[in-house]
Amino acid sequence: MYHDQGHIPSKLTGFDDTVNITLGLPIIRTSVDHGTAFDIAGTGRARPDNMIVAVELAAGMGRARHALRA
Length: 70
Known about the structure:
Blueprint: H1 3-14, E1 19-22, E2 29-32, H2 49-69
Antiparallel strand pairs: 1-2
């Protein structure tokens, strides 16, 4: 199974709020769970929803990590 095949169910049920998390790194890394959207860049059709969710998730993970170290 390729990693993208695991993304299919989440994209079908929540395309605008799915997030990719890279585990095993010494830093917190989240990103949108879709491609670069170059095909719609500059058309006014792109939406920031996934990016907002990714940033909020990273912030929450950072707060949780900080609380564990305190």
